[in-house]
Amino acid sequence: MKNVINVLMLFCLMIMTNAACAQKEKSNSATASSKSSVAGKVNLSDSEWKKKLSAQEYDVLRKKGTERAFSGKYDKHKAKGVYCCAACGQELFGSDTKFDSGTGWPSFFKPVNKTAVTEDSDTEYGMVRTEVLCSRCDGHLGHVFDDGPKPTGLRYCINSVSLSFKPQ
Known about the structure:
By secondary structure, the protein is of the alpha+beta class. The chain has three helices and nine strands, in the order αααβββββββββ.
């Protein structure tokens, strides 16, 4: 009789645990869907990004790759205008903040505004760097370093393939 009671108690405990887990999963999915409805935020599935972007854009913007130094179309680009995210079109950097860093990637000393980009810690390849992301679609743009010119002292080192350009 004692064994039957123990088995029943264990069975009830398992049912209660499963119900609690299902409730938590339901709550998490509701939170995730409310995050995706943030005003202006672009949230596409991996397959949607693959359809929207070229293979190189996908590799850099979604998989955090990088283009070869001195290979990008905006490294030596001098036109006046605004550099935008190649994935979602958000304005990121003005041509008036672009400078020649000699690194082989377009470099800027500040974004168009404080909310255009976000930053995240990047510890890949045994280095500690600060990754720069588009705040609208979370696309990987490049990295920011503290060896840039005045007035900010920052160097936003950005992949050309992560950018599009709107002339002034």
